[in-house]
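Key idea: predict the complex, not the pieces.
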Amino acid sequence: MPDFAVPSAESDLKRADLKGLGLTGRALFPHRHLLSIADLKPWEIRFLLDEAEHWAKSNRGGARKHDDRLAGMTQINAFFENSTRTLLSFEIAGKRLGADVVNMAAATSSVKKGETLIDTAMTLNAMAADVIVIRHASSGAVALIADKVDCPVLNAGDGWHQHPTQALLDALTIRRRKGSFEGLIVAICGDVLHSRVARSNMLCLAALGAQVRAVAPPTLMPPEVEMLGATPYYRMDEGLDGADVVMMLRLQNERMDGAFIPSPREYHMLYGLTPERLAIAKPDALVMHPGPMNRGVEISSVVADHPERSAITEQVEMGVAIRMACLDVLTRGAREVEGWS
Amino acid sequence: MNIPTNKEGLGMTKLAIINGTLADPAGTETGNGIILIEGDRIVATGDIPVPADAQTVDAGGLVVAPGLIDLGVFATDKPAFHFGGITRAALMPDQSSPLDDAGLIRQATRAGKPDFWVHPIAAATRGLKGAELAEIGMMQAAGAKAVGTGRQWIADSGVMMRVLAYASGLGLTVITHAEDSGLTGKAVATSGETATRLGLPHAPACAEAMAIARDIMLARITGAAIHFRLVTTRAGFDLIRAAKAERLKVTCGISPAYLFLNDQAVTDFRTFARLSPPLRAEEDRQACLAAVADGTVDVITSSHDPRGPEDKRLPFADASPGMAGAETLLALSLNLVREGHVSLCRLMTLLSANPAKILGVDAGSFASGSAADLIFIDPDMPWIVDSAKMAAQAGNTPFDRVPVQGRARRIMKGGVFL
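Result:
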């Protein structure tokens, strides 16, 4: 790595600035895998966002969206936990880049023992995958597999730990709507404790210079959440006050049964995003949700479907662009792109 | 040092160990002296003349100490125990078939003999399920030396009270795991920065003190002797200090991992550092060192639990807890002497004399009549822990690649050199 000054989180670096720092080729993103936002420097996050902008444009460019730079490469989506939209998003991203995409859906019940997990990793490796996308219900499982394979691994969600592409697509959505992150107040609301989306987003947005708030009932707030770059709020109204972005989290069905909150209706009363509550945030506050939504629980339909305020479908759209960018960048070494081998 | 074959002559062999630095658990500092052995027993120790008919063994200046007695191991792993200078171990009832039956206890007592003695801990409840009393009396007759709740706390206070009362009637100590199971649930880490960052199910450290508080109250009303196998938090030690001041029959132990590692050791999802109870915050680690220094801790155990890749090469929360600790027990504990927390004699009390007392066995002492289980320690010998080359059944140590000092150079078990 060349000697360079570390850019501050506040300066909204453009790509030209990165080149000004002497970063080119692999130095722009010197990682083999994408496992956690915690591994990324602010300028590396920006680089991925910039790359994704290109794909966001081309994805909107009419009927023909193909770019065959990954032609001949095999992308395996190994999902050990159920998923519809993330799997679909990665599949579309891979196919638009021309990769041969194969999906492996292994229910956690049938792949429970660890040796089987390692064995599965070895099997995928032996099939000469060029990039592997993994989702698993256990924190750290994706890193465990990444250790055993020869190709880049993309974490599509591991337990409560990380979901880096979700944070990147959220950041891209926010940047496109708000222009920059500096001073932006982002309230991440709901089941923060069990949420990999929240963990990745808190780290990502704080690194980009936003003021991040974690808003949750005390039973769903992780201890020492400040360490992830967020300020904890236990009352929704206080957390929403003056917010530029309101990011709602999905409340898993299994948490609704009285163990963490008394009932879905009480949760909706105290923490649900209703039009009245949204009015506490800034008048142009953006509403986001990683999906799938529990309408009437964490978010009311009026808010979710708001034509100007809701960015929820745009998040899905940016998801494909971000995943294309990640797949492209991580395979540049193997494709011997100049400056990346 | 020269070592006689012990095979010469018949009848009782008389051995005199000379030129050793004696680390007598009953003493305050190490000193010179001889140890006189007849058969498998120590007959005299100290500044005494060497009998004319005794063979002499020159210890060559090594530290001579009672063999370590490891209070609470999960496997009978003789090569690891011998490497670590451990001559006896109390076996936890958590075996593939829980030790809740006299036959299983009898079998366990025979597993290591003659050169290693296993003292099984009887399961307090049938199948370790925490509901019905196991046949503790019959297991005692078969060789059980204590009663244990196993890896789990007994959640039902009524059951725990009856376990304590019944065991006290038999003169057995109850060895318990101190974590309130309602709080711990499926937790695999202590609440705090590391668990939050890694997204691991976690429980607050006070789960330990809550369990200890209840069990001390039950020990008070039943008059039973209770031993908390692993205490790892400041709040837990505070309760135990108070109980000891009250002269309740309360003792506690710890293993070196909690003295030398904090919860940051699980960073990067290192499953070798997944222990039960989980590693604690730095503040609690400091409290553990203080509790060793001020005498609150009675026992240091390896909590030896060798686990192969099938249990450890897994996502963190799916991996089994436990570490292979027998080989590193002595060397890591000697750090406590080097760092000035305890004297060498006191360390031998923690590693040998106190476990013997809790189990009620004649060992862990230089007194006349005590078993001639001795180790000859080079306290300064440097070596590096290597998980790939361990004597244990598995190399799951969180101390991999750590340089340590101190090895047992020779072991004598029941008057016979191994």
